[in-house]
Amino acid sequence: MNSLRRLDIKYVKGIGPQRAELLTKQLDIRTAYDLVHHFPTSYLDRTSIYTIRELAGEMPYVQLKGRFISFNVLGEGAKTRLTAMFSDGSGTIEVTWFQGIKRLREVLRTGVEYIIFGKPSTFNGRWQMTHPEIDTIEKAVSQQGMRGVYPLTETLRNRYITSRQIHTWICDLLDSRPAFAETLPRSVIEDCRLVSLDTAIRELHRPTTPSALQKARERMKFEELFYIQTDMLIRSRRRKGLTEGFRFARVGKYFNDFYSTCLPFDLTGAQKRVIKEIRADVNTGRQMNRLVQGDVGSGKTLVALMTMLLAVDNGYQACMMAPTEILAGQHYETIRSLAAQIGINVRLLTGSTRAKERREIHAQLLDGSLHILIGTHAVLEDPVQFHNLGFAVIDEQHRFGVAQRARLWKKNVRPPHVLVMTATPIPRTLAMTVYGDLDVSVIDELPPGRKPVTTMLRYDAQREQVYRGIGRQLAEGRQVYIVYPLIDENDKLELRSLNEGYESICEIFSNYRVAFVHGRLKPAEKDYQMELFASGKAQILVATTVIEVGVNVPNATTMVIENAERFGLSQLHQLRGRVGRGADQSYCILMSKYKIAKDTRERLELMTRTTDGFIIAEADMKMRGPGDIEGTMQSGIPFELHIANLATDGEIISMARQAAERLLDADPGLTSPANGAFRAALAASISRTNDWSQIS
Predict the structure, then answer these.
(1) Domain count, the chain
(2) Which of 163, 256, 395, 567 has its CA 20 to 30 A from that of 482?
(3) Helical spans, DSSP H, in 186-268
C-alpha cells in the first residue's frame, strides 16, 4: 500500500495533470491509494439484456441490443441535440444526447449492432433514453456483470469524467499491480473470518458474485473501524497509564452528611452505579476523563454535586462549567440550596458578575476557602486561579471547544479529574467511536415521581383544540412553551415564524403575559425575557430552539412545537425535555402540516410512542445518519471513512472493538513481528491533530 500512497494520481494511466487537479479538488483523490479506496456506492447489473417490448412501468438501468435506424440533429447553438431511433426488432426507442454530439456522429453508424445501457422513461407513450452508454457487441461482453457506481460531482460530469471512466482507471490500476499485501494481523483475520485485503479491494471494484461483494464490504468496513478502535484504545490506555491524577481516597464528612441529610429523593439505581464508577476512577491515582450521558431530568446535576463533594472531602476544590449564564445560574441555585446545610461554600462566576464580587471570588479561590465554583466560560479566564483544583465538571460539553477546555489544565500543576456531561443521548455504537477514548457512564432512569411527558401529533386543522388545551393549563396556573422554526417569515418556506406567532399568541391569550426569546436578541435582553418566564412573571414563552439547552421551569407543563416536521428526532427530544420537570403531568404537542412525507410522519409518530432518549437517538441516526452527533465531536475521528457507516454498522463496530481489545491485551505496544505490518498501516492512516484524551 505504501507504493500506492506515494504514487501521485496524475501518473495513473489515463489521468494526467488536468484530470488529477479536478479529482483532487472535487473528490480529494490525491494518490493511487485514494483512487482504489474510492469505493462504489451502488452497483449496476450488466448481466441481462432486455427487449424493448419488455419495458414497462418504472424501469431500472437496462441493456438493449439492436441497431440505430436513423440519426437527426435538432436545434441550434446551446440547444442542439442529437436524436436517434434504436430498434431491436421487438420495438423502437428514441435515444437523445445533448453533449458530445460531434464525436458521436463520427463513431456511430446505422445498421451496426450495438448494446446500449441506460435508464428508460416514457413521454407521450413513447420510450426514451438519454445519454446511454454505447458499446459494440465485442466490448459489451467485457462489461458484463456487476459494475460499480462511483460518487461524482456535477463539475466532474460536466468535464466528462463519468463513473464508468473512474471504473476504467481503477481497473487498469488493479491489473497493473500484484496482490495487495495484507495489513491486518493474521490472528484478527482468522478470528473474525475476514477475506484478504487483496480479495476485498478487487471484489469491491469488480464483483464476481453478490455474496463475494458482501464479504468484501464487510472486510473493508471492519478494517476502517478496527483502525479507529485500536487507535482510541491505545490512547485511552496510555492516558490511564501515564497521566497522574489526584487520589480521592476518603469518603468524608461532606459526602456522608449530604447523603444522610440533604438528598431531595432516593438515588436511582443508575445514579448509584455512575457514582460508584466515578469513585473507582478518582481512587486510582490516574486522571479521570469520564462522559456521563443521560436524558434531561435524569439527575446528572445531583451526581455531579456528590462527586464534587468527594473532591472537597479530600482537600481539593471543584468547579462546574455551563455554556450559558442562565444554565450556570440554575446549577448554582440548585447546588447552593442542596449544599447549604453542610457548610459548603458555593459561588457563581459569569460575565455579568460585578467587579467587587469577582474580586472576592478570586481571593477565596486562591486561599482555598471557596469549595465549589459554578460558572460559564468566565471560569477559564486568566485571572481565575485556584488554590487546589481537583475536579472539573463540564455540562453540555459539546458547547465548549477543545482550546477552551484545554485551559482548565493550566489552573493547576496536575490536571484535575474531568467529568463531562451531556443530555444528548448517543447510541452505544456511536459513543464507542466518537468518544472511544473516554470512559462512558449512562444514567438511564428517571428519578421517582417523574411522570413521562405525553406527546401528541396534531395538524393545523386541530389548532383550535390545541389552544383550548393550552388555555386549561394556563387557567390552572401552569406555564407554556411555544417553539417556532424561524424568527421571521420566509416566502420560500411555508413555515410559521416566531414574530408572526408572537403577535397571534398575545392576541389569543390576552389575559396572560408572553415572553419571547430567539438567537438575534442581545444577551441582556435574552436573559431578561428568560428570567420573566423562569420567575413566573410571564406565563407563555414564545421561542426558537435557543431553549434547547436552557432554563429549568418545573411549572412549565406544556410545549407546542410548530412545524415539528422540520426538526430531527434528537432535537425534538431535547426540546421536549424542557417540560416534565415537576410532579404534574406534562404535554408536548407536535404541530405539523397534514401533507408530509411518509418517513417524516413515521419520525413524528415515534416521538409519540416513546420518551426513551436512547431509542430516539438510535432511530434518528438511522434516519438522518450520524452527522448531527459527529458534529459534537471536538477532535474528530482520526481516519476518513470510505465505506463504513457509523449509523448502520453497529455490529461491525462492536466486533472491531472486541478484536482491538484482544490484540492490545496480547501485545500492548504492537511490537510483535506478526503485528508489524498493521502497526505501520495504522501509523500511516492516522490523521488526528489533537488528542481528545489530553485536552478534555
Answers:
(1) 3
(2) 395
(3) 186-192, 197-205, 210-242, 253-257
Q: H-type helices in 384-427, by residue range?
A: 402-406
- pLDDT value for 688: 40
690 φ, ψ to 5°? -120, 145
> Same domain for 55 and 108?
yes
pLDDT tens figures, 182-229: 999 999 999 999 999 999 999 999 898 889 999 999 999 999 999 988
| Long-range contacts, 566-570 (Cβ 8 Å, 24+) | 566/485, 566/495, 567/485, 568/620, 568/624, 568/628, 569/603, 569/606, 569/607, 569/616, 569/617, 569/619, 569/620, 569/623, 569/624, 570/424, 570/425, 570/616, 570/617, 570/620, 570/628, 570/629
User: Which residues are CB-neighbours of 515 under 8 A, at least 6 positions away?
Assistant: 529, 530, 532, 533, 538, 540, 541, 542
pLDDT per residue as tens digits for the range 46-83: 777 889 998 887 777 888 999 999 999 998 887 889 99
Tell which of 572, 589, 610 closes a domain.
610
Single pTM value for the model: 0.66
**Cell numbers 468484501 label which residue?**
216
For residues 77 and 191, state if they share a domain: no
53 and 198 housed in the same domain: no
How wide is the angle at C-alpha 357 spanned by C-alphas 354 and 360, nearest 5°?
A: 150
Q: What DSSP string describes 129-191?
A: EES-EEEEHHHHHHT-SEEEE----HHHHHTT--HHHHHHHHHHHHHTS-PPPP-S-HHHHHH
> 4 with 138: CB under 8 angstroms?
no
Q: Which domain holds residue 500?
A: 454-610
**Which pLDDT belongs to residue 96?**
93
pLDDT tens for each residue of 420-453: 888 777 766 666 666 666 778 888 887 777 788 9
